[in-house]
Structure prediction request, 273 residues.
Amino acid sequence: MTGLARPHRLTCPCGWSGSYPTLGYAEKARRLHSCDRDWSPKVCEHTARHEHGTAAAYTHCGCRCEPCRTATADAEATRVRARAYGRSNLVDAAPARAHVQGLVGQGMSLLRIAQISGVDRSMLTRLTVGKTRSAGRREIARRIARTTEARILAVTWDPADGGRPVNGDSTTRRLRALVAAGWWTSELSRRTGWDTAYIERLLRGRPVRPGTARRVHALYGELADTPPPPSPYATRARHIARSRGWQPPSRLGGRVIAGRPLETPDDREDYAA
Prediction:
């Protein structure tokens, strides 16, 4: 269903523009808009990458460019019209909650479910654990959007994403070696699809899923003998690694480590620096 027609369009030299159903709405919007606001497109930095030109980018990323504003106005007009006709876009959250809990029970993390489904991890947390309200009370989502439910239910369990946690020493050592070689965390995040906060937690050392270990081992095999692109971030990464005593791949055996596969789910290899 498309949004309501908005034939009246106004613009401002600051970059603001908008289309409205009546001239009165348009004039009011022009009076209320701020020329100091940044109307340029924003880059999504969330785990679930919000597509530009959507209501999700407007809401979660704070993007106020024209495509995102138009998409938000369309979504709101559709919501209002559906509500007037007695049709709600919200559905019971119980089936989606049960599906997520089943995936987590099989070994998938909320982060991985968020990456596959495109649903923000905070939404999955609110769906399964709840959001903290006043006086420490946690409120679990009771209804969610139909599109959110469809994305969640489309996620299936992959053995490569699950399994019992294993010792993460070899995974941590590989990531630290890559940082010592100059591969900075945001670049590792871009190559793995994980957010930088998760990369940093792995660098601190923690048990990992076999699927996580395999992905890090494969990344190490790809980058161990490859210098990072010239960047101030690479220099900073080397300084940080040197201050923390992390060794580069050449001190850890280089390709020898990268060539050893994760043979069993209980891999506990330990290399001396």
